[in-house]
Amino acid sequence: MNTAPSSRTQVKRGASKASYDPALLHAIVDAAYVCHVAFADAHGTHCIPTACWRSGDYLYIHGSNGSRMLQRLTEQDCCVTITHVDGLVLARSAFNHSMNYRSAMVYGRFEIVAEDAKRQTLVDFMEHLAPGRQAEIRPGNDKEFAATTVMRIALAEAACKVRTGPPDDDAEDMHIAAWAGVLPLGAARGTPVPDAYCAQPAPAYVKDWATS
Amino acid sequence: MNTAPSSRTQVKRGASKASYDPALLHAIVDAAYVCHVAFADAHGTHCIPTACWRSGDYLYIHGSNGSRMLQRLTEQDCCVTITHVDGLVLARSAFNHSMNYRSAMVYGRFEIVAEDAKRQTLVDFMEHLAPGRQAEIRPGNDKEFAATTVMRIALAEAACKVRTGPPDDDAEDMHIAAWAGVLPLGAARGTPVPDAYCAQPAPAYVKDWATS
Known about the structure:
Two copies of one chain form a homodimer.
Chain A: E1 18-19, H1 22-30, E2 34-41, E3 44-51, E4 53-55, E5 58-64, H2 68-73, E6 78-90, E7 98-108, E8 111-112, H3 115-129, H4 142-147, E9 148-154, E10 157-163, E11 181-189, E12 193-194, H5 204-207
Antiparallel strand pairs in A: 1-10, 2-3, 2-6, 4-5, 5-9, 6-7, 6-11, 7-10, 8-9
Protein name (chains A, B): Pyridoxamine 5'-phosphate oxidase family protein
Organism (chains A, B): Massilia cellulosiltytica
């Protein structure tokens, strides 16, 4: 499980933190609302954040048909990266300071999701964001679907890198009288803010948002 | 203030959300612990997360001298992106769902920070992470500084994009009986975890971590 699927996914720096385990990759993708997509065109290399979701062994993104990025992504390989920062790691020397994190990099070529599958994948996306909500709202109409491109990339050529745990100090620094440990970071969910014109009671995915 | 500094920073999709205000750019960078850097080499386009900090009108990153990324970044322009996801925006139609976010994209070429300035910039970085900590720990030694490259990119050719506020529903959807509003997201700070061998009292930046 810990063999890189390709030469460009072979982690070289901090290789002990590398993992090629699909279950870890899926967990990192599922915890994300956005990914960063790197691609190139005549103007240079770009790094664009966009909403993402997973279904099976694919990562999905969507956007307007007119999007420059979506057009380019069918023509070339790209790199999709997701990063969760889990904490600041405070060591007894400046040099050994670090961060705890979980990151995933996926290489490959996006493909356009065909018209018939597109509608179901967008329902999957809604289910990921707010389980049960699709049945409450107005679903997409033909014009909206026609304006939307959905693309997917296989989660095949990928690498994860994870750091967890306390600082890794040099033995000769252990006597230093500095606090050492981890300052945790994570994703916070705040109290839902109803729209000014909303008279509806909050469904479970709203009521439980800040505490789940 | 709302004029793009170059053609490649001219936001085309959702241009009403674009800003080229340096104060906003600085605030987005200062709120980040990591950025994503996109660059290309013979193996393709890469998107690599790395720690970052700001000093003046530059964004700084650092790493091992042997880092492939740092070597490439002196040879070519790249794109550095920072994204903060602030909430899920739940509209009355599937199509009008959105996210609230603050993002910044910076284009340009990194330059290596010269040896004499390097040590001060790393002190700036520590001050950004944990104010006052630099005086408590063992500072870098010559060997550690020699192994570390610090690079900076001007915050000159940049664009920000921000969405805030409630859903933007179509007028004809306002009667739909679905909860509508924003599910806020943000960065959470957890209770500090002291290292098993740490007998030091927590300084202010640790004690106040989870509440500040």
